[in-house]
Design a protein that fits this description.
globular, 5 helices, single chain
Length: about 220
Amino acid sequence: MTEALQTVHPGTVRAWADGWAISRSVPRPVTEPWGARIEVGLPGHVTRHIIPNPTQETLERLTAAITVPGTWLKICAPVETVAPWIPGTWSVKVEEYMMTATLTRAAPRPRAVAPPGYTLAITTRSGVTVARLLTDDGEIAARGQFAVSGRTAVVDQVETAVNHRRRGLGTVIMRTLAATAWSAGARTGVLVATGEGQALYRTLGWSLHTEVTAAVLT
């Protein structure tokens, strides 16, 4: 058997998988020899397999066994390394970045950080806490959410509307989520960022845990 490419903390990856499933209202991940499997059940996103420590042998066996289009792989490794091991029937996506942060009491109080012209709204339902910055007209200018797995807050779906960017709203949302998650008992945060998003998260104290390569069977 070939060796894994790098050492990724399995507890961190599993916490992310568990929290992501709660955030997206899909069934709890099922443990598999290669990591975890989530039955998402959406068109174009039927199932996702999460592979914390991939090897060439694991990826070749898994991609050979999967035949259902819309099946995704989330592989904890750089795209340039694992892409050659993935058959041409799979579409390899732009590299993503799993990041972590320590949550502390020092995070600002959520309701004290809404900038002028915006109202901060925080709601929790079915284990998912959502923070939104709303305009006076009720438009969602920025938003983000998290779900807690153990003592880890999994941050998900952070976005700022195009016409409200470059105003620091993403920073407000992230600080609000961190403070609220700490109040809920979480002490660590984890998320998966785009290349653009990771620049913001780094300025807020988040650090890279692993590169993530996504691929989907077309």
